[in-house]
Amino acid sequence: MSIIYNLDVRCYEILEQLLYRDGYMTVQQIADERGISKRSVYYDIRKINEWLEAQNIEPLEIERKKGILIEKEAKGVIRTRLKEI
Question: How many whole angstroms from its chain centre is CA 7?
Fold first, then answer.
């Protein structure tokens, strides 16, 4: 049985925010810009990673003291998949 993962609006917006950013973005920056708690950001990152894995794309990783960075190669693939939904 396969599970279909869908992104909610907030997860989609966070992913878009990361896609159009060069360099690292911290969880605190995302929380501040979205007006949500860090805990909510971590929860949304988990949902984004479930969606990415369902799309056969490497999940996001949070590097300690740096933040989240999406590699350029992955950005193109993610953008293509987002246009499909």
Answer: 10
